[in-house]
Design a protein that fits this description.
Radius of gyration: 22 Å
Structural class: alpha/beta
Strand content: 5-15%
Largest sheet: 5 strands, parallel
Number of helices: 12
Strand order of the largest sheet: 2-3-4-1-5
Helix content: 40-55%
Number of strands: 5
Distance between the termini: 29 Å
Length: about 290
């Protein structure tokens, strides 16, 4: 399998595959959307916003932005990353303490867990550290869990910010926060951004960027091919990666030195690509 991928990259004069679906900050293409989203992440940290909220569809680039942020955090930040947190109040605190490398006492109740959490925040503050909790896939949390997170921010007092929260999730998270019963939570959101789909022109530049980073010395996708990729994926980066990767495999097996619209169409006709095949309305969103 590795040999096959070596042949694939060698055929196009590349050093690596340009369209892996795994998040990779080194391939990050700074669209206007992603630039603004990242700026809001940084703004939230710099202004010590109680809660920062970043949303977008699956595959819109949220995780890649998050990894970019993690690589550039200040040393005075103590970060806990929690993915797919779920459960009741006590379970949420267990997730948080484990993310901060704190081992809860066996059988500890909620009061004991919260006391341990608060003591940790105070100890970090005394060391000159500020704690940031990042919740990925936060749309899976319940209203009760989000309300508990809001209560966490009450630990901050006056000018002493001990804790900041960053929530990353799909559009449902935005819908949850906008509910009337979540009004107090929404009031704590000081920094937010919602990622939308790439347009056709951006998809073309996105493809060019990734193949260039992978070592290409020439254009591998012409504009017609990129336009068809946009039409078939709706501009969602993860779907663009999937379709472009398949198109390069098809071009390689055909002995072609570049990908044309005809190549992309063959992939679509064969049913190899399982992404969506029609662009969503403008008010929909992207990852």
């Amino acid at each position: 399998m590795n040999k096959k991928f070596d042949l694939y990259t060698e055929h196009f004069g590349l050093t690596e595959r340009p369209f892996s679906v795994l998040p990779d900050p080194s391939f990050l293409y700074w669209t206007a959307q992603h630039t603004r989203a990242y700026a809001m992440l940084e703004y939230g940290l710099l202004t010590r916003a109680p809660i920062t909220l970043i949303t977008g569809e699956v595959g819109a680039g949220k995780t890649t932005l998050l990894q970019q942020l993690m690589q550039n955090l200040d040393e005075n930040l103590t970060v806990g990353l929690i993915s797919n947190a779920h459960g009741d109040r006590g379970e949420l605190l267990h997730w948080v303490l484990m993310a901060l490398n704190q081992k809860p006492e066996p059988g500890a109740g909620y009061v004991e867990l919260f006391a341990a959490f608060q003591e940790f925040l105070i100890a970090e503050y005394a060391r000159g550290q500020r704690v940031v909790l990042i919740f990925d896939e936060a749309q899976n949390m319940t209203n009760e869990s989000l309300e508990e997170l809001r209560m966490f921010t009450n630990i901050n007092s006056n000018k002493d910010e001990l804790l900041q929260l960053i929530l990353i999730g799909q559009p449902e998270l935005q819908d949850m926060v906008r509910k009337p019963e979540m009004r107090q939570f929404a009031q704590r959101v000081s920094s937010s951004f919602h990622l939308k789909h790439m347009d056709a022109a951006t998809v073309y530049e996105y493809i060019r960027h990734r193949v260039k980073i992978a070592g290409a010395s020439k254009v591998l996708f012409n504009k017609a091919a990129a336009a068809l990729v946009f039409e078939a994926t709706g501009g969602v980066p993860r779907l663009v990666n999937q379709l472009c990767d398949l198109a390069m495999v098809y071009a390689y097996t055909a002995g072609a030195q570049s990908v044309t619209a005809k190549t992309v169409q063959v992939v679509l006709d064969d049913g190899t690509f399982f992404g969506r095949t029609a662009q969503e309305p403008e008010e929909s969103v992207m990852r």
